[in-house]
Design a protein that fits this description.
This protein has about 260 residues and is of the alpha+beta class. The chain is built from 5 helices and 10 strands. The radius of gyration is 18 Å and the shape is globular. The two termini are about 35 Å apart.
């Protein structure tokens, strides 16, 4: 079976997501709802000059599968009404759930959540950025470190029924320079557990074979090498990293 999962029929557009910074459409293939981001609708980025965002999104899915954690919904490249683009299976989130939130600074839950930072809202009231303390979100944070994700906003985390968390919008990934910007800093300095270290090891091993070969058609050789280097460093350090360098540690807007 191909990455499309057998969804090779005509891609019909049914709507557009206007809040997205690049052209993003909702459509159907064989009555299955998908998201479609054509390469022609991408805005050029000076700090990501190599390749396009669609190929990076497809690469992020392959990395997710190598981890074995299904962080990224099924994603592939194909032709559509506006040309070649990224196609991803649509996800119906749990409307009553959420993994990231802004709360009054004096109302941070004592259990089950991690605080990332404090600030003030539009009324100059103190608020705190928090995210849940869950295995699913820890896995996403590890994925982001390895992928060098420069844009993990709160809205890029989909809370699924049953507690699973999907990550979406991975166009700003795999840069050779440190670019990690995320709202998931709550475990900074904490030790990685055995499951997380095993996932990193699976990626490192597969980069020597099929995964490395597949990524070579999506990102540059230097980016594949940098990916392997991040796996090696994270395995040796054995801890969630802290922000470093002059880059902002969190994306803006946060959501």
């Amino acid at each position: 079976m191909t990455l499309s999962g057998g969804l090779d029929g005509e891609l019909e557009l049914t709507g557009r997501i206007m809040s997205a910074s690049n052209a993003t459409f909702v459509g159907t293939i064989d009555d299955v709802t998908v998201v479609y981001k054509p390469v022609t609708g991408e805005r050029p980025l000076w700090d990501f000059p190599d390749g396009d965002l669609a190929h990076r999104e497809a690469a992020a899915y392959l990395l997710s599968e190598a981890f074995g954690w299904h962080v990224v919904p099924r994603t592939w490249l194909r032709e559509g009404p506006l040309g070649l683009g990224m196609v991803q299976l649509w996800q119906d989130v749990d409307p009553d759930d959420g993994a990231v939130d802004l709360v009054p600074a004096d109302a941070v839950p004592e259990r089950g959540w991690r605080q990332v930072l404090e600030g003030t809202d539009e009324d100059d009231q103190p608020v705190a950025l928090i995210h849940e303390d869950s295995a699913a979100l820890r896995r996403m944070a590890v994925f982001d470190v390895v992928a060098n994700n420069a844009d993990r906003k709160g809205a890029h985390i989909l809370a699924m029924p049953g507690g699973h968390r999907h990550g979406v919008d991975h166009g700003l990934t795999f840069h050779v320079e440190h670019k990690l910007r995320t709202v998931l800093w709550g475990w900074m300095g904490d030790e990685l557990n055995a499951d997380e270290l095993a996932g990193i090891s699976r990626v490192a091993i597969q980069l020597e074979g099929a995964l490395g070969e597949s990524l070579a058609s999506l990102i540059t050789p230097r980016e594949v090498d940098a990916l392997a280097g991040r796996c090696a460093r994270l395995s040796v350090q054995g801890r969630f990293p802290a922000p470093h360098g002059e880059m902002p540690a969190v994306p803006w807007p946060l959501f």
